[in-house]
């Protein structure tokens, strides 16, 4: 299980918090999976791990105290015709739109976009039915589109 899913879990945590914490948090998830190995569904291991990762991340965030920083470096692929100024505006608008939707909507959108979960896997992580997950993703997309439209400044 560790060999097969460790990269996915480390990426999950690295996208949501400090990279230096990602491996430790992934190890914590695998420790939980070991302790609860009889509860891990063989047909849906990764969704179960993602769901556990969500709880682990929430617990870690409650313990963490943020320290202010003057500047956080951004990295990534250019998205707006290679213009750094437009890329910066685009990133800020997207972060703002994501920040304005609910925590649950944000979780659903990021599990879908970053982790590639859809349908049954998304339902398993959220602990709801497949049709419920599809509806939740649709509603989350709609609310993000609305938030994005309200925030677009360029």
TrEMBL record:
Domain RNA polymerase sigma factor 70 region 4 type, first and last residues per copy: 93-144
Residue intervals of the RNA polymerase sigma-70 region domain: 1-64
Alphabetically ordered keywords of this record: DNA-binding, Sigma factor, Transcription, Transcription regulation
InterPro entries: RNA_pol_sigma-70-like, RNA_pol_sigma-70_dom, RNA_pol_sigma70_r2, RNA_pol_sigma70_r4_t2, RNA_pol_sigma_r2, RNA_pol_sigma_r3/r4-like, WH-like_DNA-bd_sf
Coiled-coil positions: none
Protein origin, superkingdom: Bacteria
Keyword Transcription regulation (UniProt): yes
Pfam families for the chain: Sigma70_r2 (PF04542), Sigma70_r4_2 (PF08281)
Recorded family membership: Belongs to the sigma-70 factor family. ECF subfamily.
Name this protein carries in UniProt: Sigma-70 family RNA polymerase sigma factor
Species of the source: Cryobacterium glucosi
Lineage: Bacteria, Bacillati, Actinomycetota, Actinomycetes, Micrococcales
């Amino acid at each position: 299980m560790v060999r097969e899913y460790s990269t996915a879990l480390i990426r999950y945590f690295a996208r949501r918090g400090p990279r230096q914490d990602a491996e430790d948090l992934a190890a914590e998830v695998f420790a939980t999976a070991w302790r609860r190995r009889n509860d891990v569904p063989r047909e849906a291991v990764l969704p179960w791990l993602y769901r556990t990762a969500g709880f682990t991340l929430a617990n870690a965030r409650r313990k963490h105290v943020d320290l202010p920083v003057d500047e956080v470096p951004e990295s990534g692929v250019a998205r707006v015709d290679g213009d750094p100024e437009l890329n910066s505006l685009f990133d800020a608008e997207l972060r703002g739109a994501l920040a304005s939707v609910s925590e649950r909507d944000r979780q659903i959108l990021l599990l879908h976009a970053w982790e590639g979960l859809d349908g049954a896997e998304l339902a398993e992580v959220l602990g709801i039915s497949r049709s419920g997950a599809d509806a939740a993703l649709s509603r989350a997309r709609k609310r993000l589109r609305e938030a994005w439209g309200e925030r677009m400044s360029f």
